Amino acid sequence: MKGKNWREYEPAKKQKNRRRRRKGGFLKKLILAILLFVLGYVGYQIYFHHSKPYIVGLDAGHGGIDIGAEGVINEVELTERTAAKLTELLKADGRFRVVQSRDEGEAKSVTDRNHLFKRARPDLVISLHANASEDSQAFGFECYPSPPGKENHDKSLKFAQYIAKEMEGIGARLRGTDGVRFGYYVSDEEGNTSKLLLDSSDTQVYDYDTFGMLKNMKCPAVLVEQCFVTNQQDVEEFGLEEGCAKSAQAYYRAICKYLAINEEKK
Length: 266
Ligand SMILES: [Zn+2]
Known about the structure:
Layout: H1 12-48, E1 54-60, H2 75-93, E2 96-100, H3 110-120, E3 124-131, E4 142-145, H4 153-169, E5 181-187, E6 193-199, E7 221-228, H5 232-238, H6 241-258
Parallel strand pairs: 1-2, 1-3, 3-7
Antiparallel strand pairs: 4-7, 5-6
Helix pairs in contact: 2-6, 4-6, 5-6
Bound molecules: zinc ion.
Zinc ion binds next to loops.
């Protein structure tokens, strides 16, 4: 036995089995290492990059000969100003692709805008508007998600709640209980259509149509009424250059919160 390795006395079959076991152990380790590498890489990609940009459908209400509500300013001035600021913010962020429903100054029907957004398959839609009233004292912010029973209601409601909260954060006075309302068009027997605006506590499902920009949208969609163009103070706070910029920032933050992503480079 002296000077000889004990393995030389091992039966050939046993030796072969041991080699096979050793080989199997190495393969297992290799597979585990590859798996860990792949998981790490995927995690890194998800955490640091969203490789596919989020698509935001951005609608500046009215346009062209349609100037919207008239007041201290025309509604369309506010919608275009805010859309430009929000586009700027989203583009600077780098994770978004903005699809605008129309060019600046362009007139387009609500139906065409709606169809454009359906084709673009956005991750969410925001339609910018402003309120008006014969009562120049009327003021405040409200927004309209896709209402109960309609497509993407739950997600739209959540998005609307984030928007209202952010607007409240920059000093907007919320209308209704929480600045979120449901809007419908109701036709009477003569075919006259009127708007029915309900508080968000009214969760009943109605058979009425909602606003054209929210109809059958394949993603969360919210229409905002940024302020009253007929109220001097509202316009000063939310309708001029600075007010539109800070409203756009509030919408940008709400978009990030809704998508559960961090705000960047603010
Ligand atoms: Zn409008």
